[in-house]
Every structure is written in C-alpha cells, then in structure tokens.
Amino acid sequence: MPEQTTGASRPTLEAVAARAGVSRATASRVVNGGVGVRAPLVDKVRQAVEELGYVPNHAARTLVTRRSGAVAVIIAEPEFRIFSDPFFEQQVRGISRELTAHDSQLVLLWVEGPGDHDRIARYLGGGHVDGTLAFSLHNDDELPALIARARIPTVFGGRSEAGQRLAVPYVDSDNRGGAREAVRHLVSLGRRHIAHIAGPRDLMAALDRVDGYHDVMMDADPALMSQGDFTEESGARAMAELLDRRPDLDAVFVANDLMASGALRTLRERGVRVPEDVAVVGFDDLASVVRSTDPALTTVHQDIEGTGRLMVKLLMRLLDGTGGPVPASVITPTALVRRASA
Amino acid sequence: MPEQTTGASRPTLEAVAARAGVSRATASRVVNGGVGVRAPLVDKVRQAVEELGYVPNHAARTLVTRRSGAVAVIIAEPEFRIFSDPFFEQQVRGISRELTAHDSQLVLLWVEGPGDHDRIARYLGGGHVDGTLAFSLHNDDELPALIARARIPTVFGGRSEAGQRLAVPYVDSDNRGGAREAVRHLVSLGRRHIAHIAGPRDLMAALDRVDGYHDVMMDADPALMSQGDFTEESGARAMAELLDRRPDLDAVFVANDLMASGALRTLRERGVRVPEDVAVVGFDDLASVVRSTDPALTTVHQDIEGTGRLMVKLLMRLLDGTGGPVPASVITPTALVRRASA
C-alpha cells in the first residue's frame, strides 16, 4: 500500500474518478463498500485508489466533516449482566431502531471494570463516533467524567450524580413516582408491613425507588429494607433475609422485575402464598419476566424501549443543532400494571 | 471550536505541549482522556488544543499509523437472537477477554437485515476499526463479501461459503465429527429410529451437523429429518412434527441445545419419557441450558469461548504480521458429554 499523503497534495475522490474513467458517484460507491457497482468498474476504481494513494476512509473525511456516521452505546455493566437482564436488550432495541432510522451505525461497548476506562476514553477521543449514549452509570464511577471529557455530543440514560454535575442531558423514568404508586397500591390492599428490596446503592434509579418507598412508608422499620443488586439471585437472597427478620411482613415492593422473580421463588420455596400471605410488586414490566412468573407479576411499567429512542432523538438534536435547545433532562411517566401477585 | 487545519500546517502534539508548558507525555495523556493528570494541567492543555486548533483524535493518527485501537465484532443475526441465545454471549465473552488482553477496544455490531449492509460497509471502510471478527454468517448473505471488500484484517467464526471463496481465515468447531459422535452414541445405546432436528439451511455449521448425522444414518428415512432455526420454539415445533410423522422414533439428535430444550418440552407435554422412550442429544453444551433441562441434557461440547479467543489471536497475527502465517482455518475438537437424556 502506498504511503499516505497529507494536506494539499491529498488526492481527491474526483481525481480517483477521473483516473478510473467513472463518475464521481460510482467512485464514491466503490470507496464506500462497492455495493451495486459492477465488478470491472470496482476494479478500475480500486486501481486508481491505489495508484493515487487516495485515503479511502472516513478518517480523512472526519478531519473535514468531523462525522463518522457511528454512535457509541456504552453500557456501564459487565457483559454477563448485559446478556442476562432483558432490561438492557429493550433499551438497546429502542436505541438501535432509532439510530437505524437516522442511518447511524450503532457500536456497542461495555465495561467489565475500571481497567477498561482508559481504553474507552482513547476510543471516544479518537473521532470514531459522532456521539455517545451511555447508561447504567454508577455514582462512584469515573466513567461518566471520562465520557464527558471526550467532548462529543452525549446523552445519558438515567440520572446520575456525575451526569448532573457535568450537565450531560439525560432521559429517565419517573422512578420515585412509580415506586410511590407501587407502595400506595399495596397500602390500598390493606397491607401494613410492606418491605422493600432495593437495587444497587450506587445507581440513582435504585435510590430514587427507595425514596419513593419512603415517601409512603415514612416510619418504616429498617428491618423491612433489604439490599439486592438487580440480579434474580440477589432478589431470592434478599427475600430470604426479610422473611427471617420480619416473618410478619405482608407485602414487598421489589426494585426491579428480575429481583421480584427471585423473591417469588423464595416465597414459593418457603410455602408462603402470593398474594394471600405476601403481595409482591416489581418494577420494569419486562415481558419475558412477568410472563414467566407464577403468579403473574404486578409491576411498575416503564417504557424502556421508548427511553432508548428518546436518547437517540436528543442526541440527534445535539449533533444537528436543529430542533431547538436540548433539555437538561426528560422524565418519562410510569404506570402500575396490576396482575395476580398484588 | 476553531476551523480544522490540515496538511503541513496541522499543529503537532509537541506544539500543544510547548504552548501548555507541559511535557509531551502529559499533553498526550490529556488528549487521550486525561486520566491521572491534575485538573490545572488538563485545563492548560485543553486551552492550548483549542488555541492551536489541534485535532485531538485518532482520525489524524489513523492517517499516519492506520490504527484505531478498536476491533469490530459483527454478529450476522438480529438483536433479539443475540440476546436470547447464550451461544452468542459465550462467543463474545471469549472475544472480549482476549481483545482486552491485547488492549483493543471491542465494538459490537449486529445485523437486523440486508438494509443494514450498506451502513456497515461504510463504517468498516471508514478506518474506525483495525480489524473485523464476524460470525453466524449465512450462505445467501452478501455480508461476508462486504466485509472482505473493506480490506481490513478479518477472521470469520464458522465456515461459510463466502468466507472460503474470499479466502478469509476462519475458526470452527468440528461440527461434522461432533454430530457423528452424538449419533454413534445413540446407536450404541441400541436406538434404531434416530431422528435429527437440523438448524438453519443457510448456516454451514448446521449443514455440517446434518452431514455428520448422515455419516452414521446412511439410509435414514427422510421423515426422520426435521427443520428448525436454532431457537427453542422451533425445536419444540420440529419435535412435534417428528412425533406426528414417526411415532416409533426412539432417539433424536438436535443440532443445538436451545432447540433440544424445546424438543424436551414437547416430549414432556406428549407424555413421552426421556430417555426411556426417546433419547435426546443436543449440541453446544451451553451451561445455562443443560443445567435447566429435565432430564439433564447429553450434548456435544464445543469450546465456544475458546473459539472466540482463537479468532482474536489469529486477527492479532494478521494485524501485527508476527507469529507466522495465518492458517486458512482452525478446527477445534468437540466432545460428547453424557448426562441423563441419552
């Protein structure tokens, strides 16, 4: 491959087209993948590209337009969580569909641990993506600051301490309001000893749901609070702890559906009837989970796919500079969905 | 942001360091994310970057080194398949760990349909990744050719018609040998009417397993062959068809574990005992599937994570030009794992 030339002497696509004896449009198609161009023409253009040392890539274009046509989606969770929690699939699905509608290429990245941060920062600083969408950001994490420092248009999914400090726009569900509605529903059923299984302490979405619980259960016994990490297994464990501490509990609001599924398993194993003895409400309304629980799970619906789409729409406004100013945050409503478990 | 300058007048990192009054190393760290640099120095370097119009990105660097530090992993399946089949998680896990060991950033792409091809070709042609790993490539698909046309180092996961035609190195399991061993095991148990539930007709891995089945069952009744698409649901349906056509069947070799799980469900619903009435063997040995089936699934183990790691190792040899010539293909062995279902 010939040495790359730079600056004024860098050959243009027009020069390539002229040497190959094809139109600029044909040369462009070949340079961009060659789809739909007849093989002899592809060969001619390729030969011209090599002879002239044309840089047939977006790196050169990025220097001019600063556009790569790609958007990075960063999930601040390890790979096993991403593939096991349907929440992420739904969020990514919404983002993927909306990016496709904008002809942007989604590239998915995730974070096994802090050891990945430097590499991700280099990648984001490298001009390979036009923007970043990041979610599941944890409060004690340097990742949000690294992303913000890359100085490319960014939208966060979910409120985070760092995101607010760095003034990165975010989309979130009304976690606190949804939690409040869930607990009020349990109160309206006549339940009095209502427990809560909380999500990770470093995720604002989880903390907001704890706040919503306390909005209604102002004087709740701390023994009614239990801690999980949003995995099914942690929900099963937290439920066991609660039953050991407060065997008189008659309801539990669980901070996500996966943990609620684990909690239902523990209740079944202990011979506790749902909802007769203990009513259970989850959060998320993940079709694949609420369909498979027994009894069917009453839960707080949030529009996960819609949140993903909204993140893309805000990002596109940042990228295009059209559609008016981007709000600091957009909060989407939640709604209680009543099924058999409460 | 100032206009980008190009060519000879493009400011260097050294110029940025000089103006900021810091070392080149410090300037480099700031430009690459700023990790571990004190805030006042970060600010000084940023100011110098803006004043000089320095292009703080890999796009410029790519023109020189042609390295982005990133590798694209392309799964030629829609997002719902990727998130629902643990096979992909394991493959991606192996790739992710090995890329991390090489300090390469994994960016995951997938393909909802042919409408995505042009965009992916543009992205790959754009110099944003140093190499490509692609798997689940279908025979009737133009994607392998598009990937090969991007002319960046590429390794395929799994044999494919296009990959062989284009001479792209690939890593694959011994699908045919594994299938043969599975069917021979059923024969050794005294089973005579051994059916096969095949995977997608356009995937060589599935076709190779059909060939392995026929290596042993040379005169098999075509009514003993049934077609699935590697999803659990398709396995359940295919099993029902087989039972309707050949109620006397006494064994079934299923081309992957997910379909085997579906087949076991159908057998249970029809009151057919496994393995007493019908013995079942799967393919993959996916921990999350074989653990949850009842009875536990006898299956053909393939080292999915190891295959992913191997793909990265071959790619790194292509990228570095070290480690000797890259073989056209590497076939990894399979092994029958006997559990209760056969």
Automatic annotation (TrEMBL), chains A, B:
GO terms for molecular function: DNA binding. Pfam families: LacI (PF00356), Peripla_BP_3 (PF13377). The keyword Signal does not apply. Residues 11-65 form the HTH lacI-type domain. SUPFAM superfamilies: lambda repressor-like DNA-binding domains, Periplasmic binding protein-like I. Keywords: DNA-binding, Transcription, Transcription regulation. SMART domains: HTH_LACI (SM00354). PROSITE patterns: HTH_LACI_2. This is LacI family DNA-binding transcriptional regulator. It comes from Streptomyces chengmaiensis.
